[in-house]
Amino acid sequence: MVFKLLxxxxxxxxxxRFKEPTLPQKLGIPPILEGKNVLLIGPTGxxxxxxxxxxxxxxxxxxxxxxxxxxxxxxxxxxxxxxxNRLIWWSNQLEIDISVRHGDTSQYKRRLQVEFPPQLLIxxxxxxxxxxxxxxxxxxLKNVKWVIIDEVHEICDSKRGMQLVIGxxxxxxxxxxxxxxxxLSATVGEPQNVANFFSADKPVEIIKASFxxxxxxxxxxxxxxxxxxxxxxxxxxxxxxxARLRTIQELIKxxxxxxxxxxxxEFAEILASRIKTLDKKFxxxxxxxxxxxxVRIKTEKEFKEEKLKSIISTSSLQLGxxxxxxxxxxxxxxxxxxxxxxxxxxxxxxxxxxxxxxxIVSTDEDDIFESAVIAKKAMKEELEPxxxxxxxxxxxxxxxxxxTLEYWKIDLKKAYDLVKGAHPYHNLSYDQFxxxxxxxxxxxxxxxxxxxxxxxxxxxxxxxxxSTIPDVKQYRVFDSLENNFVGVLDEEFITLHGxxxxxxxxxxxxxxxxxxxxxxxxxxxxxxxxxxxxxxxxELIPVPFEVAQEVGELRSKIAKWLxxxxxxxxxxxxxxxxxxxxxxxxxMVDVIKKQLKYGIVPDDKTILIEDYENMVILHTCFGSMVxxxxxxxxxxxxxxxxxxxxxxxxxxxxxxxxxEKKVDLIKDILLNTNPELLRSYLExxxxxxxxxxxxxxxxxxxxxxxxxxxxxxxxxxxxIIEDYVGSPIYKETLxxxxxxxxxxxxxxxxxxxxxxxxxxxxxxxxxxxxGKIGIKHKYAEVIGPEKPEKEIFELxxxxxxxxxxxxxxxxxxxxxxxxxxxxxxKDLKCRKCGARLLGIIRPSDQEILKIIxxxxxxxxxxxxxxxKFNRVRKTxxxxxxxxxxxxxxxxAKGVGAETAKRILAKYHEDEDHLLKDLIKAxxxxxxxxxxxxx
Length: 934
Fold this sequence. Notes:
Blueprint: H1 8-17, H2 23-33, E1 38-41, H3 48-63, E2 70-74, H4 77-94, E3 98-101, H5 107-115, E4 120-124, H6 128-131, H7 135-141, E5 146-149, H8 159-175, E6 180-185, H9 191-199, E7 205-208, E8 215-220, H10 226-235, H11 239-253, E9 258-261, H12 265-278, E10 284-287, H13 293-304, E11 310-313, E12 328-332, H14 338-345, E13 356-361, H15 365-379, H16 393-407, E14 409-411, H17 412-420, H18 430-442, E15 446-448, E16 451-454, H19 456-464, E17 474-479, E18 485-490, H20 491-497, E19 503-506, E20 509-516, E21 520-525, H21 535-538, H22 545-564, H23 567-577, H24 582-598, E22 606-612, E23 615-619, H25 624-642, E24 645-649, E25 653-658, H26 663-672, H27 678-686, H28 690-703, H29 717-723, H30 728-740, H31 744-755, E26 760-765, H32 769-779, H33 789-801, E27 804-809, E28 816-820, E29 838-841, H34 846-856, H35 863-882, H36 884-890, H37 897-904, H38 911-928
Parallel strand pairs: 1-6, 1-7, 2-4, 2-5, 3-4, 5-6, 8-13, 9-11, 9-12, 10-11, 12-13, 17-21, 22-26
Antiparallel strand pairs: 14-16, 15-16, 17-18, 19-20, 20-21, 22-23, 23-25, 24-25, 27-28, 27-29
Helix pairs in contact: 2-3, 8-16, 10-11, 14-15, 15-22, 16-18, 16-19, 16-28, 22-24, 23-24, 25-27, 28-30, 34-35, 35-36, 35-37, 36-37
């Protein structure tokens, strides 16, 4: 048994914890004990942590090294907390000191870590940056012999990963010796490239601890039932949506513990709120990065204790946080990538003899096709390749300043060689390095004279920019009709689309902006199919080229089957070949059958170009990043020839809106433009785009050219960008866009294939069934139907009737009482003196009650108090004349006595006609209130 390789004392303690070693332990312990660098790949919750820590504990027991001898880096503070809880048991048993350090660690604990250093220090990725510059901690870090990096799949394709690998080079330089590098990862594509990324191309043994147990993923599309009609009415959503929500509830109820994943935090909120609307006591919690630490810890604890049957989550629970046993993972809508669903479903059935079970609840036809392909690929472990950042200049700038804090001054060549030792920078030229140094000198962050030398401003810059994750201000959105919290919008979206009167879509509904304040957006429901999609839609995980291509192949396969065999047989073949339920198969077959009647099915080798009204839709099964690249390339050339065009892309379409449509021009560009010029055309137009501005802000902040606290909307970005054209900041912005948002290489290849006729172009007029799906997506990724005016009116009426008001006697001042408007008697009078002169105030306004009593008793009051009294007196005059309708008017937002008097003076056939005038008055107030002096 592998445990026998360990120290005898350690073996006795291991026996208390494990009867048999898990597969990662069997495979991981021997090579680590041999001192090899290791990348251990396996599902979460399978003993990977102990697989690497037991050999490290063994080394510490036998070698008794000076502390700090081991560093354990994780990408989340929550993981640090969880890891400490797991390792504290071993710490107590082995008498090995372990400590955690991150941004929230108190000064007292930090001081203890220096005075009484632990053998094992657990840190976040960002925490490594400040401790490398700490005078006393640096001395302790020289003792590091083992570095463990957890969840490497989460960071290898990000700038956080870039920052870490240079940090590791700085640590190697500080130690003066090689440390053993041990990496942990969930299933990941291209493991050798991942290993090289972190190890600086040093030898690494890759261990795949794949289980013989299976992974079962099923794609379902619930059929609506009679019960769903009632749910739909209650939630103002479609019957299909109701069916999905009901099915999710049923699946949660019939399983012991379920994790329910969504792709964005907004969708997590939507799903949780709609489920809670159906059943307030439903045992489900919510967990995502925007929630407070206390809320997240409470949710994790209650789930582990089985007080909650499900947590609705984003990727915050995709990592290895211990939340107990899970027997089902639900994914709402396509996970968009294979690695995502593997990591998520891998959280269920952790025991080796249990199958990991996952269900994808799909929505429309695009979602069904995509989910089917991803589920099949996931079960075959066909993972998408990783796209790495290279030579990131903003990360380099921060690390150069870090080196000056470490060494006070450092030789240029030495600094360059140190950085170049990190794998992502092995192609960095000395000229590029020097250009970044000169930029830092211009910004006043370093001195430069053959050496790079520390400057005071550099210290502030370095510690303000420890994280490469951009700070994004968020605005909370509230519905003016019901005063409900709608969701969150990012600063970028507000800057670009947040003008009063504009519409946007969130929570599946269209909303019109009535007012924007410092951190709030006030909205009302609208029926606007032209509404913008918030920024977080654009931040959705991109669908890979490989997935979109197989969706195209599947379309083609179904089309061929329908020609040769019956519809029923085709449905049966789909159910056999792909992990989908019958309803999914029926919908897939139905849409292809309709598309065949239209004439052509766009697939992986055929681009259908549709000419419809003022739009041209290119059906391009090339994935999110390639389509974004082709779309921006085409729009750049179209705009230069015919003026502005609108662009919208998804994983399967590139769509244009024209003022003056010229389809032949698209054909000419695709067939006759030199593919090698694609990058040049893109860079020319990207630099003028809103997207470039937004990225430039983040890059400039990481360089220290713009303050970390500066707000995007309050800067004249175009002027700032002009000043930096050709600089490292400008170049890095372009490079970051090309890495994260575009795939220029693949798009160039596709353009070549089009021109060689290896990819066919087919032009048709009209809008096909698959085209209609794209049009729908263009305007709204909706969960339910748009709200008609009647529904908006009903919401307003319900809110108004549920509003609380307080009536106070202006005759004696001795009686007041709060009422909801709907429960107010038609002809109310004072319970003390019988007078009907009743003022109408807010229920919580205690100050005005004192003023009224003082005035009635002839006690002296100030001019301000007199004004307040007179305002209430005017409402009492209205009540005297109009009774309850006066209260209804004054319960509306922004409707004072004068506006109410004007509305009440009009003839109203019934209460609904009065309410229609009130909703107009409310809307007007929202539009103009910012101009009123309060």
